[in-house]
């Protein structure tokens, strides 16, 4: 990233058209941490070593006229209020949180990378393209992932996609247990919307735990990771599909890097004083440790966004200074707030791409869908699809370029198989994409123009109580999944303790041990049972018939107890429902 920025500034300074007689200078600070970073930020916004918060914009001339970076949403959100306070343009290349599009909070934030909203919409496009509806979403515990998860939940509504599992992971989380849960729920499409170090942990754990034949959708932070495709066993975990900015080469960049390496190597043999004077104080302790090839082969995902960020600042400054193609007037002053006014008007070509911004200072979208070819050495990233919003919105994927591992056919990741003609959907569980198929009676039809066609058909048939004669009935599975997806996830009840102490089901204790379910919450345990109904003990039909309108309060449970001869069935019911209640309202055990 550093070398792309230096290359871009040198290219602009050598230009005879853009800022013809003006040279750009820069000062670089490493983002060590969210707290230690404030010293550099305060330096940027200071004037002669001091800060005057109430100074008028017309008089305000901080040390810098614009800022680019830092990389990452959390880091950016931490420092953005200080930068925007002085109305300094903050042209960012790597912070995608949708919250930063709020101009009331971040009035001078501009970005050359698409927002999480655009990335999530792209992920949904891919999921719908292949007809999947049963997916998992894994992220990290930061602004980037939490923002992505919030947007994913929002935009999958009315798409037919069900979020079967979601989790924000810490670095020391039990990654193996998370992947086992996903595997048990028969989820074959996993969205990994996380910063690189978390994504690396997830993929390495999948390899170590022999997780096979999944589809991994990678967000732009790790879609072009250079190390993961080389991991032994990576080919067995399934297909990795990445989403990244459309990759563009930067003409002259390789030559710049080779020249820079030769210069640094020459200076490293001289004294520190001589080195600093000749290198314009740009010598760094760690730079000689990297070869030119290592720099050139780094993850290119953000190369163009950095390139575009510097050019955005340069074009805005060119307009503020009222430059023409030959000269910039010497007596024109530029204030930070003046650049913001010009940035909004920008519309210029750059390496066959158009750079312009919408009302939120978000860029034009130009995504590439890449497939990881890990069966060749070195691994390759092949572009198999595109998504563009300029000059018009287009999305396409070349299916023939995706060699699926599942018999060369698109993997199946749906909660239920689609019903055959002559059958209607009957809801099964909490998720809208989970259903069973019931044969339509004579003189009835399914209205596919309605999302809830199966319910409309059911009412036309005059059915008010679905059959509940056995454990695989839709109603019984619906009860189980309703429990799993309610507040149970927040309780964290230990399943082994629950199964052994309360339920008394003959198979439950052994099943917990056999399946390795002892670390699941009660809700996750019930959801597992709902996906394997043959393992569940029966519930009396009379009890099931009452459950359609049951609100799970103690008075209704008492009403269901009836004669003492029915205690066994009700005990099983209480076993499965007691944790639905707030602590003050839970029924006692029978």
What does this structure look like?
This protein has about 600 residues and is an alpha/beta fold. The chain is built from 21 helices and 15 strands. Helices cover about 35% and strands about 15% of the residues. The strands form four sheets. An eight-stranded mixed beta sheet has the order 5-4-6-7-8-11-12-13, sandwiched between helices. Strand 1, helix 3 and strand 2 form a beta-alpha-beta unit. The longest helix has 18 residues. It starts with a helix and ends in a 13-residue tail after the last helix. The C terminus is likely disordered.
| Terminal residue distance | 65 Å
Biggest beta-sheet profile: 8 strands, mixed
Helix content: 25-40%
Mean pLDDT: 75
Q: Count every helix, treating DSSP H or I runs of 4 or more residues as helices.
A: 21
**Shape field:** elongated
Number of strands: 15
Rg estimate, integer Å = 30 Å
Features:
single chain; 590 residues; alpha/beta; three-stranded parallel beta sheet; 21 helices; disordered C terminus
What's the helix and strand layout?
Blueprint: H1 2-13, H2 38-44, E1 67-68, H3 73-85, E2 90-92, E3 109-111, H4 116-129, E4 134-140, H5 143-155, E5 162-169, H6 175-184, E6 189-193, H7 196-208, E7 214-218, E8 238-245, H8 253-267, H9 272-278, H10 292-296, H11 303-320, H12 336-343, E9 347-350, E10 353-356, E11 366-373, E12 380-388, E13 394-397, E14 423-427, E15 435-439, H13 453-460, H14 474-484, H15 488-491, H16 495-503, H17 508-515, H18 522-531, H19 541-546, H20 554-561, H21 567-577
Parallel strand pairs: 1-2, 2-3, 4-5, 4-6, 6-7, 7-8
Antiparallel strand pairs: 8-11, 9-10, 11-12, 12-13, 14-15
Helix pairs in contact: 1-11, 4-5, 11-12, 14-18, 16-17
């Amino acid at each position: 990233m550093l070398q792309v920025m230096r290359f871009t500034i040198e290219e602009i300074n050598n230009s005879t058209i853009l800022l013809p007689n003006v040279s750009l200078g820069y000062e670089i600070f490493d983002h060590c941490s969210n707290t230690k970073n404030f010293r550099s930020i305060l330096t940027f916004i200071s004037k002669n070593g001091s800060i005057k918060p109430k100074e008028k914009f017309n008089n305000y001339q901080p040390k810098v006229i614009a800022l680019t970076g830092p990389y990452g949403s959390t880091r950016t959100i931490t420092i953005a209020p200080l930068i925007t306070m002085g109305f300094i343009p903050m042209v960012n290349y790597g912070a995608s949180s949708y919250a930063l599009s709020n101009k009331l909070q971040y009035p001078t934030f501009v970005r050359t990378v698409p927002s999480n909203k655009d990335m999530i919409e792209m992920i949904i496009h891919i999921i719908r393209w292949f007809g999947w509806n049963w997916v998992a979403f894994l992220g990290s515990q930061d602004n980037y992932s939490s923002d992505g998860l919030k947007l994913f939940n929002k935009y999958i509504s009315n798409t037919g996609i069900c979020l079967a599992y979601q989790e924000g992971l810490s670095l020391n989380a039990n990654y193996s247990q998370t992947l086992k849960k996903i595997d048990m729920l028969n989820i074959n499409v996993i969205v990994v919307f996380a910063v690189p170090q978390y994504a690396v942990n997830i993929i390495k754990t999948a390899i170590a735990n022999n997780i096979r034949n999944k589809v991994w959708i990678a967000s732009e932070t790790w879609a072009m990771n250079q190390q993961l495709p080389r991991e032994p066993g990576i080919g067995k975990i399934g297909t990795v599909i990445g989403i990244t900015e459309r990759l563009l080469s930067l003409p002259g960049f390789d030559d710049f890097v080779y020249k820079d390496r030769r210069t640094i190597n020459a200076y490293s043999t001289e004294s520190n004083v001589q080195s600093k004077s000749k290198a314009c104080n740009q010598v760094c302790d760690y730079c000689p440790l990297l070869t030119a090839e290592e720099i050139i082969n780094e993850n290119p995902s953000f190369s163009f966004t950095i390139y575009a960020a510097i050019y955005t600042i340069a074009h805005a400054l060119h307009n503020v200074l009222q430059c023409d193609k030959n000269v910039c007037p010497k007596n024109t002053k530029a204030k930070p707030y003046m650049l913001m006014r010009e940035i909004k008007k920008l519309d210029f070509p750059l390496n066959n791409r158009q750079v312009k911004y919408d009302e939120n200072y978000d860029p034009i979208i130009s995504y590439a869908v890449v497939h990881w070819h890990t069966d060749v050495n070195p691994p390759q990233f092949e572009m198999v699809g595109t998504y563009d919003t300029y000059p018009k919105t287009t999305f396409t994927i070349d299916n023939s370029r995706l060699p699926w591992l599942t018999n060369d056919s698109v993997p199946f990741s749906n909660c239920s198989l689609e019903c055959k003609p002559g059958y209607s959907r009957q809801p099964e569980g909490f998720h809208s994409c989970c259903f069973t198929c019931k044969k339509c009676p004579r003189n009835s039809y399914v209205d596919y123009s309605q999302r809830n066609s199966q319910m409309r058909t059911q009412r036309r048939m005059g059915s008010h109580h679905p059959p509940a004669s056995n454990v695989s009935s839709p109603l019984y599975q619906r009860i189980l999944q309703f429990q799993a997806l309610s507040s149970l996830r927040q309780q964290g009840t230990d399943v082994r303790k629950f199964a052994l102490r309360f339920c008394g089901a003959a198979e439950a204790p052994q099943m917990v041990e056999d399946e390795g379910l002892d670390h699941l919450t009660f809700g996750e345990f019930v959801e597992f049972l709902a996906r394997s109904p043959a393992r569940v003990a029966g519930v009396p039909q009379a009890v099931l018939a009452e459950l359609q309108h049951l609100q799970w309060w103690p008075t209704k449970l008492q009403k269901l107890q009836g004669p003492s001869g029915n205690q066994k069935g009700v005990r099983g019911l209480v076993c499965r429902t007691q944790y639905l209640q707030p602590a003050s309202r839970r029924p006692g055990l029978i």
